[in-house]
Amino acid sequence: MTFSDTQQQGAAGDVPARLSHRQITTVMSGLVLSMFLGALDQTVVSSALRTIADDLHGLTAQAWVTTAYLITATIATPLYGKLSDIHGRRPVYLAAIALFTVGSLLCGCAGSIYELAAFRAVQGLGGGGLMSLAMTIAADVTTPRERGRYQGYFIAVFGGASIVGPLVGGAFAGRATLLGIDGWRWIFLINVPLAAAAAMTIVRVLRIPHRRVRHRLDYFGALALAVGLVPLLTVAEQGRTWGWSSPRALLAYAMGLVGLAVFVVVERRMGDAALLPPRLFRIRAFRLGVGLHFVVGIGMFGAMTTLPLYLQLIRGMSPMAAGLATLPTVAANLAVTLLVGRLIARTGRFKVHLVAGLGSFTAAMLVFATLRVGSPLWYAALGMALMGAGLGASMQTLTTLAQCEVPHGDMGAATASVNFFRSNGGTVGTTAFLSILFTTATGHIADRLAQARHHTAYRRLLAQPDNAHALAGVLRPGGGVGLEDSAFLHALDPGAALPFLEGYVASLRLVFLTGAAVVLVAFLIAAWRVPNLTLSDQ
């Protein structure tokens, strides 16, 4: 049977006909390239953001570059699910790539930090579809049992991007100019040929049949969701700068809560046409899947944000070296994902892997919480391997859990909901972990400095010209410290830097203990609440 014969047969039914392994891998090749485009962009930009902000004279406003992308991508994600259910996966996916490409071109031409933030918002409109639609299409062409088998492709994408991103970002940001253009601008311009290759691949290989689902677009729901999320995501990024209880923050909380309340009311009234259909939340497996994605997203994104800070601040690694040091996470993640995918395909059982994965992730957080200034790198690598294995076993099974009982006509909306909740969990985790870190670090460092200053030898170290110069502006009258910039750590004598490093480690310990508690909650929910289902092979 040819691929076209398969399409013709599938067009007559509600669900596409079952594809062969070769046909599925052909489709996956296009999805992988598109997902790599979105994943690479995030890691490349984060590693070079400091250089970009310095060049555009907007260091204090650099957070808006991240916030703008996050806001539009988060809001667009559920819209893509609904649009693809109505119009088909391929045209909507190509539209997402086109928007991402336009946004990348504009970012490469930005003349100020605020222009860059605005253009990143355009980029986010496309980026919100690259991830969720790829997962939706994978669900279209595979049975519930088979999905885990192909999750390794997606995990490899994220793993590769986490390694390649810092290297590429550091290489471009380190060049003053390249072909007469500022080096950092190539971080965005390189997306154009990659996007063109992704689009051509999608046009060529993504030819699965589409049965139109008659949905109305929930415009009022999308507007209410924007009103609810924009203030909350903004305060999540800016809260440490504004103050969590400042008038601006309180206004943002109020606007966000009102917007979300209106969104819930609108969704109930829209019924089947809702952006996030309420009927999906009556499905127990879906409800547990998206809820656990939110909780695990808190721990996952929080750990992925703060662990590099340990490697760079405490171990003194460059961004490129820190990226390479996370190879144990990538290797364990990919290996376990492939293994668990094959086991699920063979047995149809996934709960045991979900519970084991969350247990491994909890153990990783506890390992990170016991890191010290002088801990050997192999000990940190042990935690990374446990985290990679835990995420490899749990993330694919959570997606499978959320999708396994959803009607095929709602698969786009359901998969978009998975990404929506995980993304919001990631925002909460990143914000909460960084807030805990930087809120407590000042006090921990001040305490350790006060103890160290009781020793004459340490006071002599501080008085040395190089150390005194490095600490100018850091040590405040009355024993306080200013931590707006960590560059001084690299200029200090190791002995003089020790109280600062110990203070940071004490705060990181609190961060990872918080993460362990969060992931432990997910572990308990998975162990006691997730049903021990056997997945269908149809």
TrEMBL record:
Major site of localization recorded for this protein:
membrane
Q: CDD domains annotated for this entry?
A: MFS_Azr1_MDR_like (cd17502)
Where do transmembrane segments lie in this chain? 27-49, 61-80, 92-114, 120-141, 153-174, 186-205, 217-236, 248-266, 286-311, 317-340, 352-371, 377-395, 510-530
Q: Which residues form a coiled coil?
A: none
List where in the cell it is found. Answer: Cell membrane
Q: Which PROSITE patterns match?
A: MFS
InterPro entries (alphabetical): EmrB-like, MFS, MFS_dom, MFS_trans_sf
Q: Which GO terms describe its molecular function?
A: transmembrane transporter activity
Which cellular component, as a GO term, is one annotated location? plasma membrane
Q: Does the keyword Protein biosynthesis apply?
A: no
**Residue ranges annotated for the Major facilitator superfamily (MFS) profile domain, each copy included:** 27-534
- The entry's protein name is EmrB/QacA subfamily drug resistance transporter
Q: Which organism is it from?
A: Streptomyces griseochromogenes
